[in-house]
Amino acid sequence: MSETLAALRVEPVDRGRWADLCPTFADHNYRQSFDFGVLAAARVGASSEHVALLDGERVAGLADVRIRRIPALGGGIAYVNGGPLTRVDGEYDVPRFLAAVDALRAEFAVRRGLVLRIAPPVGPEAWNREAAARMEQAGFLGTGASRAYRTMVVAIDGPADAVRRAFHQKWRNCLNRSEREGVTVVVRSDAAALDPFRELFDEFVVRKGFEVTLGADFYDRVQRDAPASERFVVLLAEKAGAVIAGLVVSVLGDTAVYLLGATSPEALRCKAAYLLQWRAIELARERGCRRYDLGGIDPDGNPGVFHFKEGMGGADVTAPGPLEWYAGLRARLVLALEARYQARRAARAARAAQPG
Asked: Which pTM does this prediction carry?
């Protein structure tokens, strides 16, 4: 149910309080986990601030805000990825979300003079559209500085047999075959859980010729720093004592997210990736998740992976934004410098891709 909120105030929170508060939000997700935010910020020379958005003494929202400053200008960009978190009762409440966004705008864009860029969490398509429209009405503008998040989301809260029947027939056939192949699935979530996955993933990336922004090494660093409650889950498919495929998922809030996957040639033969995805769904259901986000799709750039994910029968949805709000000459100069930097980086990448 929607509620009327007074202007929320922004208050910093430490690691311990963050860990206590995050599980109370149904939209808690790995992009807004403490250590993911800190390490993702550090890799681009930014810092991470964790704040609560308070309605009186009640916590109405949370946000990890990554701030990248430009010292010569005194300005910079404040980036919220996968937030703010506002679903305290599990409902998709646009007014509550907008109240949190407005509090962030007042603090980071108005008071501090930063460009505020927000990539909200993904929700049902109607919520995504309304949240984006209402942010635009509040003066937020679309930005090409970061890509929109388009993904497939599978409903997993019904009976298990109904979830399985929702898969496309060919996908179910591959799953059925994988279950007859004598593959064992090992599940780990300890600090070193990505150790057996990293080598397999690196070989997979080389074989496929993928470009990966955040690879297994990055997620391994997050895993080693994170508290047990926010660690990733690693599922490993083994056959004849060898790891032949692996999957890394985040299971937070009411939505599990597929992050990384890797297969060997033997895994392709015995369809191990299908069994891993089904085991991930079973695990997410056991932990109370209602949805499974398949981690993004790119039908044109990666059609093979798109068709695999499409076969799981999920809804094709695009998260709101990313959108940004800024005011004043300094913020415009920050954006101009960012655009120039991205253009130069794209030109270097294009030159490097040329043969000879």
From this structure: 0.91
